[in-house]
Design brief:
Length: 329
């Protein structure tokens, strides 16, 4: 068995921030999960639907791996990313750093992992790999998935080779902190304003505050969107609350990030953003409950209510991001 020493296998709520936390703590940089999420400008929104999809998908964060790239850029980290179509080369890309004593991040399809509770294809899942033996890989995943876990090398190879939406070609990555890294506290304002700018100025109507407003109109039709609403609507609600989002479609994480920032920076704009996102997080959980109830009961009125709340959320989050965009370094 070959394992990296001194690994803090702390499973947290979201997969990408869990893996980032493992890699950075090994480099001597210990940041809370909300701080990792916020410094990575992780918050977003997307309403995703197409003819080949069984049901619409609501996303509350930036695209998989964008958070990692953002975080590395703003903290001046050396991010080494490797991708390949060769399974043999992909395995070498993982074993070389692990043999040298460094954990590795992997992007893969969670469907194939032995320990994973929910068998749904998701090619944007991220884990930290800290060791291996003849049969198994030793990983760190979210707390919900067990924290420090193992999966067979066969299942890992399948997960890394998978293709489909959000999948990458055997992507692996390592992070190295520079000798004189910038202070995380000093990067809070640029991270927040970058996130706010993207949210306030989405290129298409399915993203950012415009996407939330669009969802408020379309969610009212969801009982007619599927032949199995009693399955699909509760599943959509579950994904919003429990599928590694930290609850409230990542709004809980961003609320906690802003709360942590208010202890470090004195700004009325920051306090306004935190107050509004505290309220928004509660309302997102309410929306998920209404969607679930609509699926279980067939009551269209629940979706009408959810649509009304979503329109309020579009306005509320727009106001929050407008306040946060006024922050000055």
């Amino acid at each position: 068995m070959i394992t990296v020493e001194d690994i803090d296998a702390r499973g947290t709520q979201h997969c990408e921030t869990t893996a980032l936390g493992v890699l950075l703590r090994h480099e001597g940089l210990d940041l809370s999960e909300p701080m990792l999420f916020g410094l990575g400008s992780g918050l977003s929104f997307i309403y995703w639907d197409s003819k080949n999809m069984g049901f619409p998908f609501l996303g509350g964060r930036v695209k998989p791996f964008d958070l990692t790239r953002n975080l590395a850029a703003i903290l001046g980290l050396e991010l080494l990313v490797q991708e390949t179509t060769s399974p043999r080369r992909a395995w070498e890309n993982v074993t070389v750093p692990i043999d040298a004593g460094h954990p590795v991040g992997l992007q893969l399809d969670s469907y194939y992992l032995d320990y994973f509770g929910s068998k749904v294809h998701f090619g944007g899942h991220v884990v930290a790999m800290c060791g291996y033996d003849e049969y198994d890989a030793y990983l760190v995943d979210t707390d919900r998935q067990g924290g420090a876990v193992t999966t067979s090398l066969t299942s890992l190879a399948q997960a890394r080779a998978a293709r489909g939406p959000m999948a990458a070609k055997h992507r692996s990555f390592t992070l190295t902190t520079p000798r004189n890294p910038p202070s995380p506290q000093g990067q809070i304002v640029p991270a927040i304003t970058a996130c706010a700018d993207a949210f306030l100025n989405p290129p298409i109507a399915n993203l950012g505050h415009r996407g939330i407003e669009k969802t408020g109109k379309l969610v009212r039709t969801w009982l007619q969107r599927t032949d199995t609403p009693q399955r699909d609507l509760p599943q959509a609600a579950l994904l919003m609350e429990e599928a590694g989002t930290g609850g409230a479609l990542f709004r809980n994480l961003y609320r906690d990030f802003l709360a942590e920032c208010t202890e470090l920076l004195d700004s009325s704009h920051l306090r306004t953003g935190h107050t509004l996102y505290t309220e928004a997080a509660t309302l997102w959980t309410e929306v998920a409950a209404l969607i679930k109830k609509a699926g279980e009961s067939g009551e269209a009125q629940c979706l009408v209510q959810a649509g009304t709340v979503l329109c309020d959320l579009s306005r509320m989050e727009r106001e929050a991001m407008q306040a946060l965009s006024c922050l000055e370094a």
